[in-house]
Specification:
The complex is a heterodimer of chains A (about 325) and B (about 350). Chain A is α/β, with parallel strands linked by helices and about 325 residues long. Chain A has helices at about 5-10, 15-30, 55-60, 70-85, 100-110, 110-115, 145-150, 160-175, 225-235, 255-265, 280-290, 315-320, 325-334; strands at about 10-15, 35-40, 65, 85-95, 125-130, 155, 180-185, 190-195, 210, 215-220, 240-245, 250, 265-275, 300-305. Chain B has helices spanning about 10-35, 50-55, 70-80, 80-90, 125-135, 155-165, 215-230, 260-265, 270-280, 285-310, 325-340; strands at about 65, 145-150, 170-175, 180, 185, 205-210, 235-240. The complex binds thiamine diphosphate (TPP) and magnesium ion (MG). Magnesium ion binds near residues 148, 150, 178 and 181 of chain B. Chain A: Its cofactor is thiamine diphosphate.
Chain lengths: ~325, ~350
Amino acid sequence: MTAQAELEREETETMTVREAIREALREELARDEDVYIMGEDVGAFGGVLEVTGDLYEEFGEERVRDTPIAEAGYVGAATGAAATGTRPVIELMFSDFIGVSMEQIMNQMAKMRYMFGGKTEIPVTVRATEGGGMGAASQHSGTVHAWISHFPGLKAVAPGTAAAAKGLTKAAIRSNDPVFVFENKMIYEQQGDVPTDEDYIVPIGEAAVEREGEDVTVVATQRLVGESLDVADRLAGDVSVEVIDPRSLYPLDTETIAESLRKTGRMVVADETPLSYGTHAEIITRAQEEAFFSLDAPIQRVGTPDTHMPFSTPLEQEVLPDGEGVENAIRRIT
Amino acid sequence: MANYTLDTEDGRLEALRRMLTIREFDTKAGEYFADGEIPGFVHLYIGEEAVGVGTCAALEPDDYITSTHRGHGHCIAKGLDTKLMMAELFGKRSGYCNGKGGSMHIADVDAGMLGANGIVGAGPPLATGAALSIDYQDRDQVALAFLGDGAVAQGQVHEAVNMASTWNLPAVFLVENNKYGEATPVEKQHNVKQLSDTAQAYDIPGVTVDGMDVTAVTEAVEEARKRARAGDGPTMIEAETYRYNGHYEGDEQNYRDEEEVAQWKERDAIESFKERLIDRGELTEAEFEELQAEVEDEIADAVEYAQNSDLPEPEEAYEDMFSEPVPEVEQFASRLRTDGGSSGGDSR
Ligand SMILES: Cc1ncc(C[n+]2csc(CCOP(=O)(O)OP(=O)(O)O)c2C)c(N)n1
Ligand SMILES: [Mg+2]
């Protein structure tokens, strides 16, 4: 079923990605009193990314807690808290700051459950914003979800639409495992239809077919979902493009992708991680493992060309993967 | 000899000039950011000029500093060229970082400026490293890290100060306590009364000075520098100061009231230093006006230089990654050279 058909069965409201995440947080804070938010200036200030907004007014400072600038400390504390009966939701602000907290993520959060023989649950959610496009330069524009997806013991989701943003955030908070929610900063204002049902979730590990097509499959994430849909519109009548948003990076819905590839025989993977050892590599490997004999052309990838995000606009625009790159890749194989 | 020191009349006038230059530079940076000519974000140093200038006046020209996201003042105090700084803010090829860094990453390693930094608390370990080089090669220098009150909460800051003190390195840690980290007041981030109290944990001197008084800052840093050069290890200095503007430009500042801002402005460091120089007979109102006019001209020139400089060509995105280029990156540059047009991230 396409994502659109899925939504047509629900009562929806139009809202931005930012509002959709805030609604998810609001509903989960209201539903479960063990859930609380921690991060820098998430309280009265409303968050640097303006996502937590008015949640502080509604839930108070214990449940929407400001922290010192201490990512290693509060990500570690969240892990310890999650292991001991509460369900913290961390706002890490820029995903580049994962670097500061990496020890607690890779050696504690990711490993505790397994090392302890499965006797501990770590129900922690970490939200972080990714991506270039606003001149924020190399230390505030990273797309790092491949690291987290690579690391055993962590789950990672990355919405490309408002509905997915809400459904995935809620699923992350309800999960008993560590889940990272990667929000692309360029799509916070993107609008979409979002189910109002308080129990609407997007199960972690389910991709969405955002548009059906016959000639080529574009697997796109985050900002590139919308850009790929635009490309599909532009090419309609000429090339029929199927667009899939994996939504969940780990676990990854291999079957939905493979099924599409069996139909189209051609595939482009578009994701903002740097190309080498990026998210593309995993998606492509799995796709060819499942559907190699359906392939009519080499699978193409669109990503950041192994540079950091430069500051100056023409440089940033040069390295940012975009619809033009997706279109060129489609043209080459169709 | 330092470029300027508060011990001589010329040095004091130079210090005043630099404080004015910082204020004018950041005033213009704020304006061109608001106009949309400067992309990204900018964090202004207005109000804190005495800290950067008092500190750098006590350093020798080849001493090292590490800076923060709020780095323009440190750069100017250290003697960087406002033209190249402004060009960097505008994203121009002629800027300090060829347009790759922007406001948050201005650096001039040859001038002892190891970079503004987008990661809060990342400077101190780098300064400890610079102090290690100095110590290792027995050079007559020190390394000083500027860090904010908020940065004191970072784990890597603790690790850096602990190493520097344990290894007795010629380092200085200069905490700019401007009372807030973003929107959060310092009391909500730390349990100690004074941030300089944290020095006790490392058994190094910790002093708090009035950061609105350029002389007080410079005296503390001179003392710390002497101590570092004598082989007695690092010092932590907390300078109490205040940023007049928001955390970044565009910040609505709903977390503080205008009265608080006004009270700090009454203690303005430039105003009080100017008065002191006038009282000492080293400056007249007319000379001050002239100095101010010169500074305005300098910054107007810097803006003009930035505006007239070229933006980098897209191809330059693929330069500067490594000393030996790699094919993974080179393929994009060569494709641009042959095909033209943006790659859009397309790997072929
Ligand atoms: C590791 C890290 N965490 C968070 C941020 C976001 N951030 C940028 S500036 C800032 C506040 C810094 O406060 P302070 O150290 O007091 O410096 P000030 O801005 O007051 O000069 C924060 C939280 C960051 N850049 N790096
Ligand atoms: Mg501060």
